[in-house]
Write a structure and sequence with these properties.
The chain has a 6-stranded parallel sheet with strand order 2-1-3-4-5-10, with helices on both faces. It has a 3-stranded mixed sheet with strand order 11-8-13. Strands 6-9 form a two-stranded parallel sheet. With about 280 residues, the protein is α/β, with parallel strands linked by helices. It has a domain of about 180 residues: NAD(P)-binding Rossmann-like Domain (Rossmann fold). The chain starts with 8 loop residues before the first strand and ends with a helix. Helix 1 runs parallel beside helix 3 and helix 3 runs parallel beside helix 4. InterPro entries: dTDP_dehydrorham_reduct, NAD(P)-bd_dom_sf, RmlD-like-bd. It comes from Candidatus Kaiserbacteria bacterium RIFCSPHIGHO2_01_FULL_54_36b. Belongs to the dTDP-4-dehydrorhamnose reductase family. Keywords: NADP, Oxidoreductase.
Length: about 280
């Protein structure tokens, strides 16, 4: 593996779930760098002259992106354009965090890098447009698609994993068992990007922990490790109004990069980032 100076890497969205695992380089969030301000982005990038930019900032509220398409467009499309343009101006490798939502969700097996995108939501469309922008504006790029990300611990994990763990004080929880995805530890995602940068890799990569799961599978794995007496009740996605419009399949696998199984990654995440907190709160 080649060496790479990660002190010369700039990241956006560094205060978010995945960004919390970026412990190197020039870390920025919206208080430091507004990705919607084209002039500010260009000036900042030209000042620091990074070798690579890991672009994690974007629209993450899935409900809001569907209710307010402009919100998704501004952050995912216009923001990405500004960052990609600045990256190319200094010859930096542009690393774009993308999503399984660029696919239609109907495939029977896992999506690979060879599958053609066909987004069905405003969020998915803006992520796919951002991919096209990066591929057309920059000469050196990594498009790193992922799915069902967990990470950040109690302070930042406010999605499925955090919501399930917050219910561990009860006797049972309900979890969807008819939608599939590839759970991905945010720490492993950043580790993969670092490895790709060291290798001088280019192109599209599916960065997800190995294997498929339903949300019920995930809840059962969490319960087995933290509170075996907790009962997990599998339900269809129609049971939750918030699940309307979710794709049936967000599972991914890569022909270009292999990661450890999701069960191993999840077990480490729970042990290192959640168990002390849950014990302190007397939840387990």
């Amino acid at each position: 593996m080649k060496s790479f100076d990660f002190g010369q890497v700039l990241s956006t969205g560094a205060s978010g779930m995945i960004g919390s695992y970026v412990d190197f380089g020039i870390r920025t969030d919206r208080t430091i760098l507004d990705i919607l301000d084209c002039e500010a982005v260009t000036t900042f990038v030209k000042k620091h002259k990074p070798r690579a930019i890991i672009h994690l900032a974007g629209a993450t509220d899935m409900v809001k992106t569907e209710q307010d398409p402009l919100y998704a467009y501004e952050l995912n499309v216009r923001g990405t354009y500004n960052v990609a343009q600045a990256a190319e101006s200094v010859g930096a490798t542009m690393v774009l965090a993308s999503s399984s939502r660029v696919f239609d969700g109907h495939k029977k097996g896992p999506y690979t890098e060879d599958d053609a995108p066909d987004p069905q939501t405003h969020y998915g469309r803006t992520k796919y447009i951002s991919e096209l922008i990066v591929a057309s504006l920059t000469q050196k790029y990594i498009i790193a698609r992922t799915a069902w990300v967990f990470g950040g611990g109690p302070a930042r994990d406010n999605k499925f994993f955090g919501k399930v763990l917050a219910q561990f004080g009860g006797d049972e929880i309900e979890a969807i068992d008819d939608l599939r995805g590839s759970p991905t530890y945010g720490k492993d995602y950043i580790t993969a990007i670092k490895a790709l940068l060291c290798e001088g890799a280019q192109g599209i990569f599916h960065i997800a922990n190995r294997g498929e799961a339903t949300r019920a599978d995930l809840a059962e794995a969490m319960a087995a490790q933290l509170k075996p007496a907790l009962r997990v009740v599998p339900v269809a996605h129609g049971h939750f109004k918030s699940a309307d419009g979710l794709p049936a399949n967000e599972s991914m696998q890569s022909k270009r990069y292999t990661m450890r199984p999701w069960r191993e990654a999840l077990a480490e995440y729970l042990r290192e980032e959640w168990e002390p907190y849950l014990h302190a709160q007397k939840i387990i």
